[in-house]
């Protein structure tokens, strides 16, 4: 057994071997939440013509430098009109224009309809009640983007606004990083499936569903391999199935007990174990290895350990595989509410409820009864991080806070 | 036409008529990101028995108050063992125990394996090298949750940790608020589908894909009704199809132009228009109405207006329908970087890049060329909110920031 790595060393080791997966083309709507793997340039000037931003009258601004001013109306310009067919404005003339319509030649401003009124007895004229300046209510050709300008780059996270940009540029599909496939296998003779009633001494498999949900939320596609007991042959067969995908996440079987067969079975199947102890609390017996391009996460059997290990190591690995430029977002610096005491030697991760206040991010550490306390995870939206060398922190101390994905939602 | 409402009045009006949709039962893994609509209680004590948190030896702590101490080993207890079949500990005795295994009767602590060593020549004994205290490395029955205790409540957002809690309690399905169905219809003679090359004076429909992506990200299921031109009959038929779902989102056709038929067509189809002007910039001509239980959002044709209107009004409506207890999260208070100037009278929403620093949330307002600048939305992760009565704000001023959903991801 190797020496325990620090959290930083372990994370570096995981990210070094996690491959960025080859890209795939998907329909734009399916690309939301994924990472672009191509450059997208404006295929034309945007807007492609000088365009009215309001309903009103296209005018020559110099004509309407003072108001009121009577103008002769040449025509009515709807959105979608061909700019080449519009009548050029003459001095003291205007054309009725709709939002989104192209400006006629010689026009350089739009008088909004609210600032106009009809001229009694002269249906071919309009009265400008307010002065306009050149450029008022007009979007200039190329003002948003110039033809050829880079609008989106490899590594960009695609949200709804990016989908709008892609559509504007004529794209219905986007090239994005492929999602890794992740298989979850829960190990242990004590486990029964969630729909069963455990006999005395046994418990339901909650780590499996937890890992499936964590992995899917982080961006993986998931496969449930169910439960396997502490028997070499069955364990080996199940692990072999899991090694077919990009990631295998196991829970249990990585402690020092006589039945903790996971590490040994992984080795016998050709998995290279990169480390099997990390100076982290909870989660010390976290085991990590690779076979070919498949990553193997051996998480401890305790739900809170599994949760922390996944958030600290699994999520960054998935983000790297998907193509995030920054797979492992740095913790934010915030203010501790409540106190922490720990035995120095391992970096501590604490279930936390973080909220933003005017003075910064406030982290309230949640009470827990220990590393098997699956209920405490459900109340948090962040993990507070206490360095390995620190024995205690007080309310008001600055503290690192790892925000989890649903932070903005809670 | 009615008077423009304030943003607060308009949001209140939207949320008042947005119905919380009836719940549905879904498989737990599909419930991630949704809102629970039932109470979930612990179906047993958790843990259901006194349980070892480590691999080592179950002991009577009083026996090992001082070390070293030689103990006789009674048996080996694997995880999953039936507690009723275990041999009660006698003084000066221990049982080998694995992580997750039940403690034998009379035992009240676990000596970790690292603190033990074999006794040479006596394979039936073990040497405790360190003292233990009662409760060390033991999770007490009911320590995490008591049978009948409420673990999850209606209104809870289901993340991975909650899925773990559900599994632990024997649940494979969860009762959650139904997702609303939302249809998107883009209107305007100037529009062509994104896969087409626009002829002069026309542009591609980017608002439709934008709204589809926004709505899906907010939690709706979406339906694309494509583009309809500014003709009464076709518009009416398309709107009628959109009114079949829970929400119809239109873009365009709500300004004051001669071809802005949306409001009039909605009325003719029996939609009650609750308001058609909001004191917001961008997005003033936002039109909102209902027919039976269907909500109708008439968004302006400009992409940035559509984006802002959806984030400020559409997303809270969807969140209420899904069952969020707090459908409209309050903006956080942060610090402005850069300056803003606006004409007082309308609440201003500005595309913003927000980040967390030690002193709080910092909002950098992004440059934009106007309300048609679809590129600016793609660079932000938040909207800075400037009150209607404020004409200018300076760098360093406190400012309200509306965090958007992918805030933690960028």
Task: Give a description of the structure.
- The structure is a homodimer.
- With about 400 residues, chain A is of the alpha/beta class.
- Chain A has 4 domains: about 5-20 and about 180-320, Molybdenum Cofactor Biosythetic Enzyme, Chain A; about 25-45 and about 145-175, Molybdopterin biosynthesis moea protein, domain 2 (Alpha-Beta Complex), CATH 3.90.105; about 50-140, Molybdopterin biosynthesis moeA protein, domain 3, CATH 2.170.190.11; about 330-410, Beta Barrel (Beta-clip).
- The first copy, chain A, is about 20% helix and about 30% strand.
- Chain A is built from 7 helices and 28 strands.
- A 6-stranded mixed beta sheet of chain A has the order 7-4-6-5-9-8, with no helix packed on it.
- In chain A, a hairpin with a 6-residue loop joins strand 8 and strand 9 (about 125-130).
- Chain A is elongated and about 100 Å long.
- The model of chain A has no long low-confidence stretch (mean pLDDT about 95).
- At the A-B interface, helix 2, strand 15, helix 3, strand 22 and helix 7 of A face helix 2, strand 15, helix 3, strand 22 and helix 7 of B.
């Amino acid at each position: 057994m190797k020496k325990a790595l620090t959290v930083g060393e372990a994370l570096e080791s995981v990210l070094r071997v996690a491959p960025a997966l080859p890209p795939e083309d998907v329909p734009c709507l399916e690309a939301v939440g994924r990472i672009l793997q191509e450059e997208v340039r404006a295929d034309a000037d945007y807007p492609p013509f000088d365009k009215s931003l309001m309903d009103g009258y296209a005018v020559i601004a110099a004509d309407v430098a003072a108001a009121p001013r009577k103008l002769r109306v040449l025509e009515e310009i709807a959105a979608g009109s061909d700019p080449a067919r519009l009548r050029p404005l003459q001095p003291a003339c205007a054309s009725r224009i709709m939002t989104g319509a192209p400006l006629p030649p010689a026009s350089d401003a739009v008088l909004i309809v609210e600032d106009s009124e009809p001229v009694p007895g002269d249906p071919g004229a309009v009265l400008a009640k307010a002065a306009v300046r050149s450029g008022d209510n007009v979007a200039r050709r190329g003002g948003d983007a110039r033809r050829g300008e880079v609008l989106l780059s490899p590594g960009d996270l695609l949200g709804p606004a990016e989908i709008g940009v892609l559509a504007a540029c004529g794209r219905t599909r986007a090239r994005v990083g492929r999602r890794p496939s992740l298989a979850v296998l829960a190990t242990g003779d004590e486990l029964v499936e969630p729909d069963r009633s455990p006999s005395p001494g046994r418990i339901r498999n909650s780590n499996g569903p937890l890992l499936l949900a964590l992995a899917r939320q982080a961006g993986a596609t998931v496969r449930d391999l169910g439960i396997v007991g502490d028997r070499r042959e069955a364990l080996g067969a199940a692990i072999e199935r899991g090694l077919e995908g990009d990631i295998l996440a196991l829970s249990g079987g990585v402690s020092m007990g006589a039945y903790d067969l996971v590490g040994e079975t992984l080795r016998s199947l050709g998995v290279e174990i990169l480390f099997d102890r990390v100076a982290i609390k909870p989660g010390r017996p976290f085991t990590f290895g690779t076979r070919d391009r498949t990553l193997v996460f051996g998480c401890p059997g305790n739900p809170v350990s599994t949760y922390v290990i996944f958030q600290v190591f699994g999520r960054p690995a998935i983000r790297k595989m998907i193509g995030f430029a920054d797979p492992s977002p740095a913790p934010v610096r915030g203010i501790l509410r409540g106190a922490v005491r720990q035995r120095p030697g391992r970096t501590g991760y604490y279930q936390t409820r973080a909220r933003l206040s005017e003075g910064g991010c406030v982290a309230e550490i949640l009470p827990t009864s220990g590393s098997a306390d699956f209920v405490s995870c459900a109340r948090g939206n962040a993990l507070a991080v206490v360095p390995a060398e620190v024995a205690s922190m007080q309310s008001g101390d600055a503290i690192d806070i790892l925000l989890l994905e649903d932070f903005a939602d809670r």
